[in-house]
Design a protein that fits this description.
Structural class: alpha/beta
CATH class: Alpha Beta
Largest sheet: 6 strands, parallel
Strand order of the largest sheet: 1-2-3-4-5-6
Radius of gyration: 17 Å
Number of domains: 1
Strand content: 15-25%
Helix content: 40-55%
Shape: globular
Number of strands: 6
Oligomer: single chain
Order of helices and strands: HEHEEHHHEHEHHEH
Distance between the termini: 18 Å
Number of helices: 9
Low-confidence stretches: none
CATH superfamily: Aldolase class I
CATH architecture: Alpha-Beta Barrel
């Protein structure tokens, strides 16, 4: 869609809150212009990003940062060796995550967790950002593409939230729509 088409579609709805997401929305052409236009229209703009592309002067109302853990790396059989190598080289950018925290009115860090190892890696990522982060800014999401799979993760996540003060973020789209693109 063109920017004008997006703005026309947005105008059809009374919602004030807009979430810009995608794969990585910050690589989209003219995304900064779209975000600034939405803000000019009085919209509260959240950007969901892996935090690998710097905000470069962009200020959003909520930066929803989802740093990619090792569990996000696709298999070489599925993606090919070149893609896996590129993913591993770029998936974690602590300096860029810090820039988002400093440039945003508010932020949250979301981690998809399936094991104790994932939880420890998430804590290492948080520490690598290099600025104090309140525990309530950390959201833990269960990994899984079905309710059954996600339910097996809840005991670990609940314990981590109780122990560290993190927040639990169920993956409502899976519960409501299943594992479908575009939800």
């Amino acid at each position: 869609m063109s920017q004008d088409q997006i703005l026309t579609a947005v105008a059809k709805h009374p919602a004030r809150h807009i979430v810009i997401t995608g794969g990585e929305p910050m690589v989209a052409k003219d995304i900064r212009v779209l975000i600034q236009t939405l803000q000019t229209l009085g919209k509260h703009v959240t950007v969901e990003t892996a935090g690998t592309v710097p905000p470069a002067g962009l200020r959003v109302d909520l930066a929803s940062l989802s740093p990619k853990l090792a569990n996000s790396t696709p298999s070489q059989e599925k993606a090919g060796a070149a893609w896996v190598q590129r993913h591993e080289q770029t998936r974690l950018q602590p300096a860029v995550l810090r820039q988002w925290l400093e440039a945003s009115a508010d932020y949250q860090l979301k981690f998809v967790i399936s094991t104790d190892t994932d939880l420890l890696e998430a804590q290492d990522v948080i520490a690598s950002i290099g600025v104090p982060i309140l525990p309530e800014k950390i959201l833990l999401m269960p990994e899984g593409i079905s309710m059954e799979a996600m339910r097996t993760r809840y005991p670990l996540l609940i314990q981590a939230c109780l122990t560290h003060g993190y927040r639990l973020s169920p993956r409502l789209h899976i519960e409501l729509f299943g594992n479908k693109r575009g939800t």
